[in-house]
Amino acid sequence: MKIFIASIGTRGDVQPYVALGKGLQAAGHTVTLATCERFRGFVEGHGLRYGYVNDEIMQLIDSDLGRELMEDTNGLLRVVAANFRLMRQVGPMQERLLDDTWKAALKADPDLILFHPKAILGPAMAEKLGIPAVLASPIPFIVPTGDFPCVGFPALPLGRAYNRLTYGLVNFIMRLIAGRYVKKWRKQSGTPAKRRNLDLLHDPEGNIAPALFGYSNHVIPRPSDWPDNVVATGYWFLDTEEEWRPPADLLDFLAAGEPPIYVGFGSMSGRRPERKARMIVEALIKSGHRGILARGWGGLDATDLPDTIMAIDEAPHDWLFPRMAAVVHHGGAGTTAAGLRAGRPTLICPFFADQPFWGRKVNRIGAGPEPIWQKKMTVDRLTVAFDRLVNDQAMRKRAEEIGALIRTEDGIGNAVTFIGNSKR
Predict the structure, then answer these.
(1) CATH numeric code, 2-235+409-422
(2) How confident is the model at residue 275, as a pLDDT?
(3) Of 31, 202, 303, 392, which residue is most buried, by most CB within 10 angstroms?
């Protein structure tokens, strides 16, 4: 079977689909992954076919405006306001993105489409081609449940009706913001909408469409009201290639003392990454713990580091995290998964989107303290949190238990089976 995967966004929006694509390819399928040009080498380096999508959205994320919005969108309403603020700039960009995705799909000539929620053209393309579409996401999104609210909403004690309402609001907002672009594409491509122009939840006949979510049921138990064709498979991990070798200075640092605390925020460090780096270094020194500071794409860096702190550009999480005392990060789905699988206590310092959601979940299962919002980060708060991550034995034991459970799962294998059945 020829499978076309569409995913738009940062490295965290791409890596799980590379892992899933490799699993599908190992099962005998031909896989094309369409994503931003920045990740072409990453996709092709893992043996998958690459589908071209322009890099404009990544350039926006990297811009000063993108960093500013990252720090100012601490809830769904602010996210919506930010989207409307960017509408004039993002509108033409969105149209070009849809056009590139469609061209990549035509070239792939697929039998089935898997799509990230950000790849909003997925269902419409499948309808045009007369093939199935499956929503595939690392976070619980789009499909309603009364068990917990949708990502971006607070966990209020208002019952199941409130929780389900949040999903309806998210789907409505997505149609409001992006529906016009899908409608225009449908008109240009001659694909009349049987239902709404943008509807990621239903198939053309109005039934709940199949969906799979790449996270563990040990972290979020399966909702009691999901239909049978919606599943959480377990995480989609992309493990280190055998040829990767850690640099000598990193091995020397790890061997020189107690396991350090990892701190890194990936591509997200906001407008003043140097200020955050200084706070982290000061908190590590004040708490007396060794640390590894991951610079990442966001520019998190510091100078004049003591011997107890090392800055690195990057290292595979599946290799690095088991060697840490604890992990501290922004709360991206993939980084959260890696820390939990390693069995390490986790502190999440979220910016926006799904990050506070994962912060709450990690805290609720007992594998980490309450999250510290980036805008509320202080040296004193970090110092207290670092001490707890290292010294709270109940938390450390619980993190190890969760890690052991996650390591028994075969998320990719479960997803491959589900996808194979979706074609029938």
Answers:
(1) 3.40.50.2000
(2) 81
(3) 31
Low-confidence ranges of the chain (pLDDT < 50): 84
- Give DSSP secondary structure letters for 10-39: SGGGTHHHHHHHHHHHHTT-EEEEEEEGGG
Report which of 275, 270, 273 is spatially closest to residue 295, judged by C-alpha positions.
273
Do residues 44 and 38 make contact, with C-beta atoms less than 8 angstroms apart? no
State the Cα–Cα distance between residues 52 and 59, nearest whole angstrom: 16
3-class secondary structure, 53: strand
In this structure, whether the domain defined by 248-406 belongs to CATH 3.40.50.2000 is answered with yes
The pTM of the full predicted model, rounded to 2 decimals, is 0.89
CA atoms lying within 13 Å on the CB side of residue 195: 15
Look up residue 215 and give its DSSP letter: S
**Closest of 214, 209, 7 to residue 119, by C-alpha:** 7
List the domain boundaries for the chain: 2-235+409-422, 248-406
Tell me what percent of the residues of the chain surpass a pLDDT of 90: 68
Partner residues linked to 294 by β-bridges: 264, 312
